[in-house]
What we know:
Order of helices and strands of chain B: EHEHEEEEHEHEHEH
Distance between the termini of chain A: 48 Å
Protein name (chain A): Protein-glutamate O-methyltransferase CheR
Pfam family, one (chain A): CheR
EC number (chain B): 3.1.1.61
Strand content of chain B: 15-25%
Number of domains of chain A: 2
Number of strands of chain B: 9
Keywords (chain B): Chemotaxis, Hydrolase
Protein name (chain B): protein-glutamate methylesterase
Distance between the termini of chain B: 11 Å
CATH superfamily of chain B: Methylesterase CheB, C-terminal domain
Number of strands of chain A: 10
Strand order of the largest sheet of chain A: 6-2-1-7-8-10-9
Oligomer: heterodimer
Largest interface: A-B, 26 and 28 residues
Number of helices of chain A: 10
Mean pLDDT of chain B: 94
Largest sheet of chain B: 7 strands, parallel
Amino acid sequence: MDKPSDIQITEEDLTLLINDIHLTHGYDFSDYSRASFRRRIERLITIDQLSSFAELRYRVRTDPAYFAHVVEEISVTVTEMLRDPAFYKIVRNNIIPVLATYPFIKVWHAGCATGEEVYSMAILLKEAGLLHKSLLYATDMNPAALAKARKGIFPLSQMQQYSRNYMLAGGTQDFSSYYTANYHFASFDSRLSEKIIFAQHNLVTDFSFNSFQLIFCRNVLIYFNKDLQNRVLKLFDDSLEFNGFLALGTKENIRFSSIAPNYKQIIGREKIWRKIK
Amino acid sequence: MIIIGGSAGSLQVVFYLLGNCPPDFDIPILIVLHRDPQGISRLAELLATKTTLTVKEIEDKEPIEKGCVYVCPPDYHTLFEDESSFSLDYSEKINFSRPSIDVTFRSGADVFGNRLVCILLSGANADGADGLNYVRSHSGISVVHSPEEAEVRYMPEQALLQGKADHVLRKDEIMQFILRLA
Protein backbone atom coordinates (compact mmCIF):
# COMPACT_ATOMS: atom_id res chain seq x y z
CA MET A 1 0.00 0.00 0.00
CA ASP A 2 2.93 2.26 -0.59
CA LYS A 3 1.23 4.31 -3.27
CA PRO A 4 -0.95 6.93 -1.59
CA SER A 5 -4.34 7.83 -3.03
CA ASP A 6 -4.66 10.92 -5.21
CA ILE A 7 -7.65 12.26 -3.26
CA GLN A 8 -6.72 15.64 -1.81
CA ILE A 9 -7.83 16.19 1.77
CA THR A 10 -8.13 19.72 3.12
CA GLU A 11 -7.86 20.84 6.73
CA GLU A 12 -11.59 21.60 6.65
CA ASP A 13 -12.33 18.02 5.53
CA LEU A 14 -10.43 16.69 8.52
CA THR A 15 -12.28 19.00 10.90
CA LEU A 16 -15.65 17.90 9.49
CA LEU A 17 -14.73 14.23 9.86
CA ILE A 18 -13.53 14.74 13.42
CA ASN A 19 -16.81 16.48 14.29
CA ASP A 20 -18.85 13.69 12.70
CA ILE A 21 -16.98 11.06 14.68
CA HIS A 22 -17.35 12.96 17.93
CA LEU A 23 -21.10 13.52 17.49
CA THR A 24 -21.91 10.04 16.22
CA HIS A 25 -19.56 7.84 18.21
CA GLY A 26 -18.15 9.89 21.11
CA TYR A 27 -14.47 9.46 20.17
CA ASP A 28 -12.70 12.83 20.28
CA PHE A 29 -9.80 13.16 17.82
CA SER A 30 -9.80 16.96 17.76
CA ASP A 31 -6.56 17.24 19.74
CA TYR A 32 -4.73 14.51 17.92
CA SER A 33 -1.65 15.61 16.02
CA ARG A 34 -3.10 16.79 12.72
CA ALA A 35 -0.10 15.57 10.77
CA SER A 36 -0.41 11.96 11.97
CA PHE A 37 -4.20 11.96 11.85
CA ARG A 38 -4.07 13.06 8.22
CA ARG A 39 -1.72 10.18 7.42
CA ARG A 40 -4.05 7.65 9.05
CA ILE A 41 -7.00 8.97 7.05
CA GLU A 42 -5.02 8.96 3.80
CA ARG A 43 -3.98 5.39 4.53
CA LEU A 44 -7.58 4.38 5.25
CA ILE A 45 -8.75 5.83 1.95
CA THR A 46 -6.02 3.91 0.15
CA ILE A 47 -6.46 0.50 1.79
CA ASP A 48 -10.27 0.64 1.59
CA GLN A 49 -10.08 1.97 -1.97
CA LEU A 50 -12.62 4.69 -1.23
CA SER A 51 -13.67 6.82 -4.18
CA SER A 52 -13.92 10.12 -2.33
CA PHE A 53 -13.63 11.79 1.04
CA ALA A 54 -17.43 12.13 1.07
CA GLU A 55 -17.74 8.35 0.92
CA LEU A 56 -15.55 8.04 3.99
CA ARG A 57 -17.67 10.58 5.89
CA TYR A 58 -20.89 8.85 4.87
CA ARG A 59 -19.72 5.41 5.96
CA VAL A 60 -18.34 6.72 9.24
CA ARG A 61 -21.68 8.35 10.06
CA THR A 62 -23.93 5.47 9.04
CA ASP A 63 -22.08 2.19 9.46
CA PRO A 64 -21.01 1.26 13.03
CA ALA A 65 -19.12 -1.83 11.86
CA TYR A 66 -17.13 0.29 9.44
CA PHE A 67 -16.44 2.81 12.18
CA ALA A 68 -14.99 0.03 14.37
CA HIS A 69 -12.57 -0.64 11.54
CA VAL A 70 -11.77 3.09 11.34
CA VAL A 71 -10.84 3.19 15.04
CA GLU A 72 -8.63 0.19 14.51
CA GLU A 73 -6.85 1.88 11.61
CA ILE A 74 -6.54 5.33 13.18
CA SER A 75 -4.81 3.99 16.24
CA VAL A 76 -1.27 3.01 15.38
CA THR A 77 -0.61 -0.42 16.87
CA VAL A 78 2.94 -0.88 15.63
CA THR A 79 4.91 -2.20 18.61
CA GLU A 80 7.34 -4.93 19.60
CA MET A 81 8.49 -6.86 22.65
CA LEU A 82 11.34 -5.23 24.59
CA ARG A 83 11.54 -2.44 22.03
CA ASP A 84 14.67 -0.34 22.76
CA PRO A 85 16.61 -2.95 24.75
CA ALA A 86 18.71 -0.25 26.46
CA PHE A 87 15.51 1.12 27.95
CA TYR A 88 14.44 -2.28 29.30
CA LYS A 89 17.89 -2.86 30.72
CA ILE A 90 17.39 0.22 32.87
CA VAL A 91 13.93 -0.98 33.86
CA ARG A 92 15.49 -4.30 34.88
CA ASN A 93 18.52 -2.91 36.69
CA ASN A 94 17.32 0.41 38.12
CA ILE A 95 13.54 0.39 38.47
CA ILE A 96 12.57 -3.17 39.35
CA PRO A 97 14.85 -3.20 42.45
CA VAL A 98 12.93 -0.15 43.70
CA LEU A 99 9.57 -1.76 42.93
CA ALA A 100 10.72 -4.85 44.85
CA THR A 101 10.58 -2.84 48.10
CA TYR A 102 6.80 -2.39 47.81
CA PRO A 103 4.45 -5.00 49.32
CA PHE A 104 2.26 -4.77 46.24
CA ILE A 105 3.33 -3.53 42.79
CA LYS A 106 0.98 -1.70 40.44
CA VAL A 107 1.98 -0.86 36.88
CA TRP A 108 -0.07 0.84 34.15
CA HIS A 109 0.63 0.36 30.45
CA ALA A 110 -1.37 3.23 28.93
CA GLY A 111 -2.02 2.77 25.21
CA CYS A 112 -0.83 -0.86 25.27
CA ALA A 113 -1.97 -1.61 21.67
CA THR A 114 -1.56 -5.35 21.03
CA GLY A 115 0.21 -5.92 24.35
CA GLU A 116 3.82 -6.72 23.45
CA GLU A 117 5.18 -4.30 26.04
CA VAL A 118 3.05 -5.48 28.94
CA TYR A 119 4.13 -9.09 28.30
CA SER A 120 7.73 -7.85 28.22
CA MET A 121 7.27 -6.26 31.64
CA ALA A 122 5.59 -9.39 33.01
CA ILE A 123 8.67 -11.38 31.95
CA LEU A 124 11.02 -8.96 33.72
CA LEU A 125 8.90 -9.05 36.91
CA LYS A 126 8.72 -12.84 36.80
CA GLU A 127 12.50 -13.12 36.48
CA ALA A 128 12.89 -10.81 39.48
CA GLY A 129 10.53 -13.07 41.45
CA LEU A 130 7.99 -10.25 41.79
CA LEU A 131 5.19 -11.13 39.40
CA HIS A 132 3.16 -12.88 42.12
CA LYS A 133 2.79 -9.60 44.02
CA SER A 134 2.27 -7.42 40.93
CA LEU A 135 -0.73 -6.24 38.98
CA LEU A 136 -0.28 -4.84 35.48
CA TYR A 137 -3.09 -2.76 34.01
CA ALA A 138 -2.96 -2.66 30.22
CA THR A 139 -5.37 -0.22 28.61
CA ASP A 140 -6.12 1.01 25.12
CA MET A 141 -8.94 2.80 23.32
CA ASN A 142 -8.88 0.24 20.50
CA PRO A 143 -11.00 -2.84 21.39
CA ALA A 144 -9.64 -4.92 18.52
CA ALA A 145 -6.05 -4.36 19.64
CA LEU A 146 -7.02 -5.25 23.24
CA ALA A 147 -8.63 -8.48 22.06
CA LYS A 148 -5.32 -9.47 20.46
CA ALA A 149 -3.40 -8.43 23.56
CA ARG A 150 -5.63 -10.60 25.77
CA LYS A 151 -4.83 -13.68 23.71
CA GLY A 152 -1.08 -13.21 24.05
CA ILE A 153 -0.48 -14.75 20.64
CA PHE A 154 2.11 -13.06 18.44
CA PRO A 155 3.60 -13.91 15.04
CA LEU A 156 6.33 -16.53 15.30
CA SER A 157 8.30 -14.65 12.67
CA GLN A 158 8.98 -11.89 15.24
CA MET A 159 10.48 -14.17 17.89
CA GLN A 160 14.04 -14.04 16.60
CA GLN A 161 14.01 -10.24 16.89
CA TYR A 162 12.33 -10.35 20.32
CA SER A 163 14.79 -12.92 21.56
CA ARG A 164 17.63 -10.64 20.44
CA ASN A 165 16.00 -7.67 22.19
CA TYR A 166 15.61 -9.83 25.31
CA MET A 167 19.30 -10.69 25.43
CA LEU A 168 20.37 -7.09 24.70
CA ALA A 169 18.12 -6.02 27.60
CA GLY A 170 20.08 -8.27 29.96
CA GLY A 171 17.97 -11.44 29.74
CA THR A 172 19.79 -14.65 30.64
CA GLN A 173 17.07 -17.29 30.25
CA ASP A 174 15.96 -19.03 27.10
CA PHE A 175 13.41 -16.58 25.65
CA SER A 176 11.59 -19.41 23.86
CA SER A 177 10.68 -20.90 27.25
CA TYR A 178 8.04 -18.16 27.57
CA TYR A 179 5.95 -19.28 24.61
CA THR A 180 4.69 -22.32 22.77
CA ALA A 181 5.17 -22.28 19.01
CA ASN A 182 2.06 -23.25 17.09
CA TYR A 183 2.18 -23.10 13.31
CA HIS A 184 2.99 -19.45 12.58
CA PHE A 185 2.24 -18.18 16.05
CA ALA A 186 3.86 -17.98 19.45
CA SER A 187 1.42 -18.38 22.28
CA PHE A 188 2.71 -16.80 25.49
CA ASP A 189 2.59 -18.61 28.83
CA SER A 190 -0.71 -17.90 30.60
CA ARG A 191 1.22 -17.56 33.87
CA LEU A 192 2.44 -14.22 32.48
CA SER A 193 -1.03 -12.91 31.67
CA GLU A 194 -2.58 -14.02 34.98
CA LYS A 195 -1.39 -10.78 36.52
CA ILE A 196 -2.44 -8.54 33.63
CA ILE A 197 -5.78 -6.75 33.57
CA PHE A 198 -6.80 -5.63 30.08
CA ALA A 199 -9.38 -2.85 29.87
CA GLN A 200 -10.64 -0.26 27.45
CA HIS A 201 -9.61 3.24 28.48
CA ASN A 202 -9.41 6.37 26.36
CA LEU A 203 -6.70 8.79 27.47
CA VAL A 204 -8.60 11.67 25.84
CA THR A 205 -11.90 11.27 27.65
CA ASP A 206 -11.46 8.89 30.61
CA PHE A 207 -10.18 9.66 34.09
CA SER A 208 -7.58 8.29 36.45
CA PHE A 209 -8.78 4.92 37.84
CA ASN A 210 -6.08 3.86 40.26
CA SER A 211 -2.64 4.80 41.59
CA PHE A 212 0.57 3.24 40.36
CA GLN A 213 4.29 3.08 41.05
CA LEU A 214 5.14 2.86 37.37
CA ILE A 215 3.36 4.10 34.26
CA PHE A 216 4.46 3.19 30.75
CA CYS A 217 3.17 5.27 27.87
CA ARG A 218 5.59 4.83 25.01
CA ASN A 219 5.05 6.30 21.56
CA VAL A 220 1.46 7.27 22.28
CA LEU A 221 1.86 10.97 23.11
CA ILE A 222 3.49 11.59 19.71
CA TYR A 223 0.02 11.20 18.16
CA PHE A 224 -1.41 14.04 20.28
CA ASN A 225 -1.00 17.79 19.98
CA LYS A 226 0.71 19.73 22.76
CA ASP A 227 -2.51 20.62 24.62
CA LEU A 228 -3.65 17.03 24.76
CA GLN A 229 -0.15 15.85 25.70
CA ASN A 230 -0.27 18.22 28.63
CA ARG A 231 -3.71 16.97 29.73
CA VAL A 232 -2.65 13.34 29.50
CA LEU A 233 0.57 14.02 31.43
CA LYS A 234 -1.62 15.62 34.15
CA LEU A 235 -3.71 12.43 34.17
CA PHE A 236 -0.53 10.39 34.66
CA ASP A 237 0.62 12.74 37.40
CA ASP A 238 -2.72 12.20 39.17
CA SER A 239 -2.30 8.44 38.80
CA LEU A 240 1.31 8.15 39.94
CA GLU A 241 2.35 7.69 43.56
CA PHE A 242 5.03 9.91 45.05
CA ASN A 243 8.44 8.47 44.02
CA GLY A 244 6.78 6.63 41.16
CA PHE A 245 8.22 6.34 37.64
CA LEU A 246 6.91 7.61 34.33
CA ALA A 247 8.36 5.97 31.18
CA LEU A 248 7.83 7.53 27.76
CA GLY A 249 9.08 6.79 24.23
CA THR A 250 12.66 7.54 23.18
CA LYS A 251 11.75 10.79 21.42
CA GLU A 252 9.07 12.00 23.83
CA ASN A 253 9.66 14.56 26.55
CA ILE A 254 7.81 16.17 29.45
CA ARG A 255 9.95 19.32 29.38
CA PHE A 256 7.25 21.56 27.84
CA SER A 257 4.46 20.33 30.13
CA SER A 258 3.16 21.77 33.38
CA ILE A 259 4.15 18.65 35.36
CA ALA A 260 7.85 18.97 34.45
CA PRO A 261 8.95 20.76 37.68
CA ASN A 262 7.76 17.80 39.79
CA TYR A 263 9.82 15.23 37.93
CA LYS A 264 13.46 14.28 37.59
CA GLN A 265 14.90 12.27 34.70
CA ILE A 266 16.60 9.28 36.32
CA ILE A 267 19.37 8.24 33.94
CA GLY A 268 21.11 9.83 30.97
CA ARG A 269 19.07 9.95 27.81
CA GLU A 270 16.46 7.31 28.56
CA LYS A 271 13.01 8.84 28.93
CA ILE A 272 12.22 7.75 32.48
CA TRP A 273 11.24 10.31 35.08
CA ARG A 274 10.69 10.00 38.82
CA LYS A 275 8.03 11.96 40.65
CA ILE A 276 9.91 13.93 43.28
CA LYS A 277 7.22 16.36 44.49
CA MET B 1 11.93 25.26 4.66
CA ILE B 2 14.51 23.04 2.95
CA ILE B 3 14.27 19.25 3.19
CA ILE B 4 17.18 17.11 2.01
CA GLY B 5 16.45 13.40 1.56
CA GLY B 6 18.85 10.61 0.72
CA SER B 7 19.96 7.07 1.33
CA ALA B 8 23.01 5.03 0.35
CA GLY B 9 25.83 7.27 -0.86
CA SER B 10 24.27 10.58 0.19
CA LEU B 11 26.10 11.31 3.44
CA GLN B 12 29.19 12.89 1.85
CA VAL B 13 26.97 15.21 -0.19
CA VAL B 14 25.08 16.23 2.96
CA PHE B 15 28.44 16.99 4.63
CA TYR B 16 29.45 19.08 1.62
CA LEU B 17 26.20 21.04 1.50
CA LEU B 18 26.04 21.77 5.23
CA GLY B 19 29.76 22.49 5.37
CA ASN B 20 29.36 25.25 2.79
CA CYS B 21 26.38 27.00 4.41
CA PRO B 22 27.49 30.32 5.94
CA PRO B 23 26.96 30.76 9.69
CA ASP B 24 24.16 33.27 9.09
CA PHE B 25 22.17 30.99 6.77
CA ASP B 26 18.75 31.21 8.39
CA ILE B 27 16.40 28.92 6.46
CA PRO B 28 15.72 25.81 8.56
CA ILE B 29 17.04 22.62 6.96
CA LEU B 30 15.70 19.14 7.67
CA ILE B 31 17.80 16.08 6.84
CA VAL B 32 15.97 12.76 6.20
CA LEU B 33 18.42 9.90 5.77
CA HIS B 34 17.70 6.18 5.83
CA ARG B 35 19.58 4.75 8.77
CA ASP B 36 20.07 1.52 10.63
CA PRO B 37 17.37 1.53 13.35
CA GLN B 38 19.59 -0.51 15.69
CA GLY B 39 22.50 1.90 15.31
CA ILE B 40 23.08 4.46 18.03
CA SER B 41 21.99 7.82 16.69
CA ARG B 42 25.20 9.72 16.28
CA LEU B 43 24.29 11.37 12.98
CA ALA B 44 23.48 14.74 14.55
CA GLU B 45 26.81 14.79 16.41
CA LEU B 46 28.62 13.85 13.22
CA LEU B 47 26.91 16.57 11.19
CA ALA B 48 27.62 19.14 13.88
CA THR B 49 31.34 18.65 13.25
CA LYS B 50 30.86 19.63 9.58
CA THR B 51 28.89 22.87 9.90
CA THR B 52 28.76 26.09 11.88
CA LEU B 53 24.96 25.86 12.02
CA THR B 54 23.23 24.41 15.07
CA VAL B 55 22.34 20.73 14.51
CA LYS B 56 19.57 19.00 16.46
CA GLU B 57 18.08 15.54 16.34
CA ILE B 58 14.32 15.99 16.48
CA GLU B 59 12.21 15.08 19.49
CA ASP B 60 8.44 15.01 19.28
CA LYS B 61 6.86 18.51 18.85
CA GLU B 62 10.34 20.07 18.52
CA PRO B 63 9.95 23.77 17.66
CA ILE B 64 11.32 24.86 14.26
CA GLU B 65 13.84 27.68 14.57
CA LYS B 66 15.69 29.76 12.03
CA GLY B 67 19.29 28.87 11.35
CA CYS B 68 18.97 25.30 12.60
CA VAL B 69 19.66 22.00 10.90
CA TYR B 70 17.30 19.23 12.04
CA VAL B 71 17.99 15.53 11.73
CA CYS B 72 15.21 12.93 11.59
CA PRO B 73 15.59 10.36 14.37
CA PRO B 74 16.00 6.71 13.34
CA ASP B 75 12.94 4.46 13.32
CA TYR B 76 10.34 7.26 13.31
CA HIS B 77 8.66 9.14 10.48
CA THR B 78 9.11 12.90 10.77
CA LEU B 79 6.08 15.09 10.01
CA PHE B 80 5.30 18.79 10.29
CA GLU B 81 2.63 19.52 12.89
CA ASP B 82 2.42 23.11 11.63
CA GLU B 83 4.86 25.76 10.39
CA SER B 84 6.48 26.02 13.79
CA SER B 85 6.87 22.44 14.98
CA PHE B 86 7.66 18.87 13.99
CA SER B 87 5.70 15.79 14.99
CA LEU B 88 6.93 12.19 15.06
CA ASP B 89 5.07 9.07 14.02
CA TYR B 90 5.84 5.39 14.55
CA SER B 91 3.44 3.94 12.02
CA GLU B 92 4.13 1.38 9.29
CA LYS B 93 7.30 1.62 7.21
CA ILE B 94 6.84 3.18 3.77
CA ASN B 95 9.09 1.95 0.94
CA PHE B 96 10.61 -0.38 3.58
CA SER B 97 11.82 2.76 5.31
CA ARG B 98 11.25 4.60 8.58
CA PRO B 99 12.02 7.45 8.31
CA SER B 100 10.51 7.56 4.85
CA ILE B 101 11.47 10.49 2.62
CA ASP B 102 8.08 10.36 0.88
CA VAL B 103 6.28 10.80 4.18
CA THR B 104 8.32 13.84 5.18
CA PHE B 105 8.19 15.49 1.73
CA ARG B 106 4.40 15.08 1.62
CA SER B 107 3.88 16.45 5.10
CA GLY B 108 6.15 19.39 4.28
CA ALA B 109 4.10 20.14 1.17
CA ASP B 110 0.84 20.06 3.16
CA VAL B 111 2.17 22.61 5.63
CA PHE B 112 4.50 24.85 3.58
CA GLY B 113 3.07 24.68 0.03
CA ASN B 114 5.19 26.90 -2.23
CA ARG B 115 7.59 27.84 0.57
CA LEU B 116 9.23 24.45 0.44
CA VAL B 117 12.33 23.18 -1.36
CA CYS B 118 12.92 19.42 -1.43
CA ILE B 119 16.25 18.00 -2.54
CA LEU B 120 16.66 14.30 -3.31
CA LEU B 121 20.15 12.77 -3.30
CA SER B 122 21.79 9.40 -3.91
CA GLY B 123 20.17 6.14 -2.86
CA ALA B 124 19.32 2.55 -3.70
CA ASN B 125 15.54 2.64 -3.35
CA ALA B 126 12.67 4.63 -4.84
CA ASP B 127 11.67 6.46 -1.65
CA GLY B 128 11.25 10.20 -2.29
CA ALA B 129 9.99 9.96 -5.88
CA ASP B 130 6.30 10.05 -5.00
CA GLY B 131 6.90 12.73 -2.38
CA LEU B 132 8.66 14.98 -4.90
CA ASN B 133 5.66 14.81 -7.23
CA TYR B 134 3.38 15.71 -4.35
CA VAL B 135 5.62 18.67 -3.48
CA ARG B 136 5.44 19.93 -7.07
CA SER B 137 1.65 19.54 -7.12
CA HIS B 138 1.60 21.82 -4.03
CA SER B 139 3.78 24.43 -5.78
CA GLY B 140 6.94 23.54 -3.89
CA ILE B 141 10.31 23.28 -5.64
CA SER B 142 11.90 19.91 -6.36
CA VAL B 143 15.61 19.39 -6.89
CA VAL B 144 17.19 16.08 -7.86
CA HIS B 145 20.90 15.30 -7.65
CA SER B 146 22.14 14.45 -11.12
CA PRO B 147 22.13 10.63 -11.50
CA GLU B 148 25.41 10.92 -13.45
CA GLU B 149 27.12 12.32 -10.38
CA ALA B 150 25.20 10.58 -7.56
CA GLU B 151 27.10 7.73 -5.93
CA VAL B 152 24.06 5.43 -6.20
CA ARG B 153 21.97 6.67 -9.10
CA TYR B 154 18.82 4.60 -8.52
CA MET B 155 16.99 7.03 -6.19
CA PRO B 156 17.41 10.20 -8.28
CA GLU B 157 16.79 8.20 -11.45
CA GLN B 158 13.51 6.81 -10.10
CA ALA B 159 12.40 10.30 -9.15
CA LEU B 160 12.99 11.47 -12.71
CA LEU B 161 11.25 8.40 -14.18
CA GLN B 162 8.18 8.82 -11.99
CA GLY B 163 7.82 12.54 -12.56
CA LYS B 164 9.61 15.72 -13.43
CA ALA B 165 11.95 17.72 -11.24
CA ASP B 166 12.24 21.49 -11.35
CA HIS B 167 16.01 21.16 -11.32
CA VAL B 168 18.47 18.34 -11.91
CA LEU B 169 21.79 19.56 -10.56
CA ARG B 170 25.34 18.55 -9.71
CA LYS B 171 26.28 18.98 -6.08
CA ASP B 172 28.12 22.27 -6.63
CA GLU B 173 25.04 23.56 -8.46
CA ILE B 174 22.81 22.39 -5.59
CA MET B 175 25.06 24.37 -3.25
CA GLN B 176 24.75 27.53 -5.38
CA PHE B 177 20.98 26.98 -5.54
CA ILE B 178 20.70 26.72 -1.75
CA LEU B 179 22.83 29.84 -1.22
CA ARG B 180 20.63 31.84 -3.58
CA LEU B 181 17.55 30.95 -1.50
CA ALA B 182 18.83 32.88 1.50
